[in-house]
Amino acid sequence: MTPIETQQIHARASDAAAGRGGVKIEARGVERVFESKNREVRALGPFDLDIADGEFVCLVGPSGCGKSTFLRMVAGLARPSAGTVRVSVRDTSRPPTAMVFQDYSIYPWRTVLANVRFGLEVQGVSKKEAERRALDSISRLGLAEFTKSYPHELSGGMRQRVSIARALAMEPEILLMDEPFAALDAQMRTILQEELLALWEADRRTVLFVTHSLEEAILLADRVVVMTARPGKLLDDKVIPFDRPRSVAIRQSPEFAALHEELWEHLRREVTP
């Protein structure tokens, strides 16, 4: 491979297909190797994956298999050691991706409004437009009465809503979510799953979502991509058969249980020492 082929490429879509369900994220032969003085750790790959424009895809797999590493490559925060990750972008005037992390990653010294507005300020969006977009995003996440509150005054679920609102305010073409609900209790996790489903139904932006929960993946995703143990490779790529709009009530169906068991059987050998 030439040097350019081993780097991440953020490319503008060459035709209108990317806006009509064409390939939005394309990974080919992606590998990630971490080196130290004493050893080399092969964390990921080779890994191939296509994600369509407007698709909601969940990545599941054992700890350390490279799920979050791949997410960071799509975000442009890390480069593959080999292979390419190509993101097709329709509008170069706005960021192609925005990321939501498990640990909220919001600033304790800034109010809710200031946190949500922060990314827009960094992008150079005018103060008036940044305020409008931040308030709109805050309202969509049910935080309108907390614009002047600080993170320490909010519950964990509300802090994660702030993190999601900040990402959505950027109006990215791709939303990247790295176990965003893992630190929440079961009740709050269910509530935010419902809210995320409703938000996704409203705009159908591309979402790549990392989770350790097969149940969460089946509930949220159009497709669940199962990865092997390190170095992570593609083990299974399952289309979820449940209609949209989708409710958490589908968890009670025999079909949901059967699909959960099928995916777990694929994954069991990978998580068992």
From TrEMBL:
Key words, A-Z: ATP-binding, Nucleotide-binding, Transport
Molecular function (Gene Ontology), one example: ATP hydrolysis activity
Domain ABC transporter positions: 25-254
SUPFAM superfamilies referenced in this protein's UniProt entry, alphabetically: P-loop containing nucleoside triphosphate hydrolases
ATP-binding as UniProt keyword: yes
InterPro entries in alphabetical order: AAA+_ATPase, ABC_transporter-like_ATP-bd, ABC_transporter-like_CS, ABC_transporter_ATP-bind, P-loop_NTPase
PROSITE patterns: ABC_TRANSPORTER_1, ABC_TRANSPORTER_2
Protein name: Nitrate ABC transporter ATP-binding protein
Source organism per UniProt: Amycolatopsis taiwanensis
Species classification: Bacteria, Bacillati, Actinomycetota, Actinomycetes, Pseudonocardiales
